[in-house]
């Protein structure tokens, strides 16, 4: 929608879809007991607040190359609040115990985190996505971690300043994957 109709229409369309989704959610929750409805809506409210906070944090980090891994991971953990919410809602609907709900929530958060970290690596392989992130978003975490080495940082930034080709992507990938900090992230 953004590419075809522009930012204003994309934001309005997002607002409409969000409102419609919340309306449908409220209707669906009317089929639940008051206690379960309150739990489900509370879970969703908390997930929205947490993921919105992460989006704000991400916006404040755009264009920066000096981002600590702990800060980046904290942002990702907040962004995947919806994954935890989905598993917790499943626990509520399945009449899980509080312990089971907690474990399912942790599973959802961990699974979301792992998928997001995977995407951080995948985005290095995809030329168009890498250029988009370099120009409009935050660079993928493995690249940011490799920036701890000033020589490596300079080489990667020089490559990203131009329209990159597949050879450039492979060069960036090679520089990033040989970084000690990237290897530490993989171990983590």
Tell me what the structure shows.
The model has no long low-confidence stretch (mean pLDDT 91). Helix 3 runs antiparallel to helix 5 and helix 9 runs antiparallel to helix 10. By secondary structure, the protein is mainly α.
Short description:
With 188 residues, the protein is mainly α. It has helices at 2-5, 7-29, 34-61, 69-79, 81-93, 98-125, 127-136, 141-146, 150-160, 166-177, 180-187.
Features:
188 residues, mainly alpha, 11 helices, 0% strand
Ranges with pLDDT <50 over ≥5 residues? none
- General shape: globular
**Helix fraction?**
over 70%
Q: Spell out the helices and strands N to C.
A: HHHHHHHHHHH
Q: Tell me the strand percentage band.
A: under 5%
**Major sheet, described briefly?**
none
Gyration radius, rounded: 20 Å
How would you state the average pLDDT, rounded?
91
List the topology elements.
Layout: H1 2-5, H2 7-29, H3 34-61, H4 69-79, H5 81-93, H6 98-125, H7 127-136, H8 141-146, H9 150-160, H10 166-177, H11 180-187
């Amino acid at each position: 929608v953004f590419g075809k109709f522009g930012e204003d229409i994309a934001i309005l369309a997002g607002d409409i879809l969000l409102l419609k989704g919340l309306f449908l959610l409220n209707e669906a929750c009317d089929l639940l007991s008051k206690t379960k409805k309150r739990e489900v809506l509370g879970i969703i409210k908390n997930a929205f607040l947490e993921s919105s906070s992460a989006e704000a944090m991400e916006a404040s980090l755009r264009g920066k190359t000096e981002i600590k891994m702990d800060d980046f991971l904290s942002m990702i953990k907040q962004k995947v609040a919806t994954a935890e919410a989905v598993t917790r809602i499943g626990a509520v609907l399945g009449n899980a115990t509080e312990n089971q709900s907690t474990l399912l929530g942790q599973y959802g958060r961990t699974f979301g985190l792992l998928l997001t970290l995977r995407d951080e690596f995948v985005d290095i392989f995809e030329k168009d996505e890498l250029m988009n992130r370099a120009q409009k978003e935050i660079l993928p975490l493995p690249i940011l971690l490799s920036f701890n080495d000033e020589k490596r940082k300079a080489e990667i930034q020089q490559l990203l300043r131009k329209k990159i080709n597949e050879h450039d992507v492979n060069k960036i990938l090679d520089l990033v994957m040989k970084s000690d900090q990237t290897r530490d992230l993989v171990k983590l």
